[in-house]
Design goal:
The complex is a heterodimer of chains A (237) and B (311).
Chain A (H helix, E strand, L loop, with lengths): L1 H16 L2 H24 L5 H19 L4 H6 L1 H7 L4 H22 L1 H10 L5 H27 L4 H17 L9 H10 L1 H9 L5 H25 L3
Helix pairs in contact in A: 1-6, 2-3, 2-6, 3-8, 3-9, 6-8, 6-12, 8-9, 8-11, 8-12, 11-12
Chain B lengths: L1 E10 L2 E11 L4 E5 L6 H9 L6 E6 L2 E2 L4 H7 E4 L11 H11 L4 H15 L14 H13 L5 E5 L7 H14 L4 E6 L2 H7 L2 E6 L2 E7 H7 L4 E8 L3 H5 L1 H4 L3 E8 L4 E7 L6 H10 L3 E8 L3 H8 L5
Parallel strand pairs in B: 3-8, 3-9, 6-7, 7-8
Antiparallel strand pairs in B: 1-2, 1-4, 4-5, 9-10, 11-13, 11-14, 12-13
Helix pairs in contact in B: 4-5
The chains are: A mainly alpha (237), B alpha/beta (311).
């Protein structure tokens, strides 16, 4: 725990000391804000469905962008060598970094709170429960994508390659749901269960099912474990 | 104490380290010498725990490097060759981060910081970004990070590259002082640097140890013929050439004509010192001797000889 805390705060500081975090957050807020307000006043419905639909799409590029350098940059600049010779376990290193990405994700989602405040002012009979589960779903989906991005970044020492691998993973799990009609019936069910969108749409509707939560947590664990293993294998190269 | 037995490291098909053995005791300063790609950095990377050996046994303070890697990392301070640092951090933050990871208690951090700031000369740059520091200062910051927890074992891969001559002398003194109580391993390809700093040298070539011992021992055991340079005026070239016949056991390698007089280079075996005979002969022939300098072989010559003078 001790080391996770210091890795986390170092990583968070490096996000916010430079311009990167601010650029990402501004772009994220602009895109989500545009798509939300574009339809919000036309439909005249007191919900945030527009936001909950656009954020998973923005994630496809936003999350690979914030995770691409998180490990690959350390490999590229050689600071990985310093980290590996400090008494830090690989899982502490990975979890510390993962928590820092989640914090950035949380800040991004908090910024969309502006839209929620709008809704509270102009809306009537708002379903606060659905808003809460919608946000929870967005956070969990983002957390799964972030674990994939983290794993992608651990596979290379080039940030651009890290970005492309991350988009590849994220797209696969995003698109599976959309490609089901081309799949034979026998595997369609399994594939649907693997899709992020399938679980996200359940939560967004306000249904908190443990099956969905288990899916999200097991995906996160899987990719964190893969990242740790990918770092462990480095020593033998 | 470090003990290495039959250490091998392969990168794919390339054999970087081919079965080296050595042991180093506490309080020793050991220098690793070798040309580029000889395997010295690889060996240091394995000792620091960054790489795993392909085979072989390494124990550090009686801990096995494979089983107790985490414990070993706690007692080692390591400065990598390229000195990678977080350029977006302030020097102070970087040292604080390293100290925290090294589990230095908060109340001892200030003393530890003050100590490395003085030792490495970091005064005035603590609140600068690492990326904004000059190469020499970065090197000092890397060194400070490696020793902030007062490690029992210090592994320094090329610690003086990028430093100016004054800084080199400072860091050399620092390493010498550290070596009184710690085990210090440093590598360098600057031979004078190694010669001036360490007690013991290990020369590595193509992944194998080709010499191991004190500087003096290595020089003495590899000594060949001694070179002698003379500057003489008032002699003719033919007369000088004839020296070989008049004094036994010398071999003239070069005669160089100057404006007035000649420079003669000759060689002799260590046991047949011809200098007295030469002097008497020069006096007898009424020439004037301006210079007579023996040049004993230095570490550089020996290094070139041992590594096959490939460069």
């Amino acid at each position: 725990m001790h080391n996770i805390k210091y890795i986390y705060s170092k990583e968070l500081r490096s996000y916010f000391n430079g311009p990167m975090a601010y650029i990402f957050l501004v772009i994220f807020s602009l895109i989500t804000g545009y798509f939300f307000s574009n339809t919000f006043f036309i439909f005249g419905q007191s919900d945030m469905r527009a936001l909950f639909q656009i954020v998973p799409l923005v994630y496809l590029f936003f999350i690979p962008a914030i995770t691409m350098g998180i490990i690959s940059k350390e490999k590229n600049t050689g600071t990985m060598e310093v980290m590996c010779t400090l008494p830090i376990k690989n899982y502490e290193f990975v979890i510390g970094k993962y928590l820092a990405i989640l914090t950035l994700l949380k800040v991004a989602l908090l910024l969309t709170g502006v839209m929620f405040i709008n809704l509270v002012f102009v809306g009537t009979s708002i379903d606060y429960g659905a808003v809460f589960t919608g946000y929870l779903g967005l956070f969990l989906a983002g957390a799964v994508y972030a674990s994939m991005g983290l794993f992608a970044s651990s596979l290379t020492d080039n940030q651009v390659v890290g970005f492309i691998i991350a988009i590849f993973f994220v797209l696969i799990f995003f698109l599976i749901d959309k490609l089901l009609i081309f799949m034979p019936n026998t595997i369609a069910g399994t594939l649907q269960y693997l899709s992020i969108d399938y679980h996200l749409s359940n939560i967004s509707r306000g249904v908190l099912d443990t099956r969905n939560l288990i899916y999200f947590f097991s995906m996160i664990t899987l990719f964190i474990v893969l990242t740790v293993e990918s770092l462990n294998s480095r020593k033998w190269n | 104490m470090i003990e290495v037995k039959k250490l091998y490291k392969n990168y794919g098909n390339v054999r970087a380290v081919q079965g080296i053995d050595f042991s180093i005791n506490d309080g020793e300063i050991v220098g690793f010498l070798g040309s580029n790609g000889a395997g010295k950095s690889t060996t240091l990377k394995i000792l620091s725990g960054y790489l795993s050996p392909s085979s072989g046994q390494i124990s550090i303070n009686n801990l096995d490097i494979m089983k107790d890697s985490h414990e070993i990392k706690k007692i080692i301070g390591y400065l990598p060759e390229s000195n990678p640092l977080y350029n977006d951090m302030m020097v102070y933050d970087l040292l604080e981060f390293t100290a925290k990871i090294r589990k230095i208690p908060n109340n001892e951090f200030k003393d530890a910081l003050d100590k490395v700031v003085i030792q490495c000369g970091l005064n005035g740059i603590l609140h600068k970004n690492v990326g904004a520091c000059s190469k020499g200062y970065k090197q000092r910051v890397g060194l400070a990070c490696a020793m902030i927890h007062n490690p029992k074992i210090l592994i320094l891969d090329e610690p003086v590259t990028g430093l100016d001559p004054n800084q080199i002398v400072e860091i050399r003194e620092l390493i010498k002082n550290l070596g009184k109580e710690k085990l210090v391993i440093m590598s360098s390809h600057i031979l004078q640097e190694i010669e001036a700093t360490v007690d013991r040298i290990i020369i590595i070539d193509q992944g194998k140890i080709i010499a191991d011992g004190s500087t003096k021992k290595i020089i003495n055991s590899n000594k060949g013929n001694i070179q002698l340079q003379l500057e003489i005026i008032g002699a003719k070239k033919e007369e000088l050439k004839n020296l070989e016949n008049e004094i036994s056991n010398i071999k003239i390698s070069k005669i160089l004509k100057l404006k007035s007089g000649y420079i003669i280079n000759l060689e002799y075996a260590q046991k047949n010192d011809p200098r007295e005979q030469l002097f008497k002969l020069i006096v007898k022939s009424k020439w004037t001797l301006l210079e007579m300098t023996p040049k004993s072989e230095n570490l550089e010559d020996i290094f070139r000889k041992l590594t096959g003078n490939k460069s």
